[in-house]
Amino acid sequence: MAASTDSVDSIRGLLDNCLTKLGFEVYPLKVGWYNSLLPATLRLSYPDDTLAVVVLSTPAMFEEAFLPFMEQRGCQGLSDPIDQCVRHHITSACFPEQKVDVRFDYELLPSRKPKFLAQTAAHVSGAAFYYQQSDVPDQPWAGKKMFGVCVHPRFGGWFAIRALLVFGDVTVGSELVQSLPPDCVPSREARIQLLEAFNFHWQDWSYRDIVPPVQTYSQKQKDYFFTPPAQRFALLKTWGFAVWFWVTDNQS
């Protein structure tokens, strides 16, 4: 179906109402904006005017969504607890009367390619600027491959791209105007610093502070993410949360 500005705003408003209070942000985009930057093998199989929404988690998500999720529901072992929480809240916010293709950042296609390129989606939606090697003139790395990273204008690197929602039956026209993300790392020197911190020293998280953030992860959240993934279930148990270890048909 075709969407008016009101219906696009309505979809975003409903998602905002469900997710913002839990520490998420939502940004609409057209599939064509995303596909225009990618080779055919990585494009989404939807018309260019199809509505999509990218969902980010902010530092508040840990305390506002994850810890209450663990308190109320616990988690099933063998699947990442954060992923379980994000899936629960995003799928709960979707609309049963509409066709929504929900793609999470951790999901892969049978080809082992990601279901969507999270940083590209964040960039074209205006959520966060995707700084890549090609954004640095006179590169100092002598042909070495440098991976790119998104920077949020308010949170720096203290956020995560969690999902892409594609509304397969909703098409939008010129009323949805693309807004470029703020270029908050404009100088060559700062971009070199950012990419080198991300590629060579990502463990110390210094790249996250490339711009002054309005909020960072709490100490408890830092403790969680500094803990190796295989040991996080044990950490959650020490915090008093329930963890069950069995396999069900809806394993991701």
UniProtKB/TrEMBL annotation:
- Keyword Flavoprotein among UniProt keywords: yes
Where found in the cell?
Cytoplasm
Instruction: Tell me the cofactors it needs.
Output: FMN; FAD
Sections of the chain in a coiled coil = none
Keyword Cytoplasm found: yes
Q: State a single Gene Ontology molecular function.
A: FAD binding
Give the reactions, separated by semicolons, that this protein catalyses: apo-[alkylcobalamin reductase] + an R-cob(III)alamin + glutathione = cob(I)alamin-[alkylcobalamin reductase] + an S-substituted glutathione + H(+); apo-[alkylcobalamin reductase] + adenosylcob(III)alamin + glutathione = S-adenosylglutathione + cob(I)alamin-[alkylcobalamin reductase] + H(+); 2 cob(II)alamin-[cyanocobalamin reductase] + 2 hydrogen cyanide + NADP(+) = 2 cyanocob(III)alamin + 2 apo-[cyanocobalamin reductase] + NADPH + H(+); apo-[alkylcobalamin reductase] + methylcob(III)alamin + glutathione = S-methyl glutathione + cob(I)alamin-[alkylcobalamin reductase] + H(+)
- Protein origin, superkingdom: Eukaryota
Cited InterPro entries: MMACHC
Q: What is its EC number?
A: 1.16.1.6, 2.5.1.151
Q: Name one GO biological process term.
A: cobalamin metabolic process
Q: Name one GO cellular component term.
A: cytoplasm
Q: Which Pfam families match?
A: MMACHC
The record's keywords, sorted A to Z, are:
Cobalamin, Cobalt, Cytoplasm, FAD, Flavoprotein, FMN, NADP, Oxidoreductase
Q: Which family does it belong to?
A: Belongs to the MMACHC family.
Q: What is this protein called?
A: Cyanocobalamin reductase / alkylcobalamin dealkylase
Organism (species): Amphiprion percula
Q: Read off the lineage from the record.
A: Eukaryota, Metazoa, Chordata, Craniata, Vertebrata
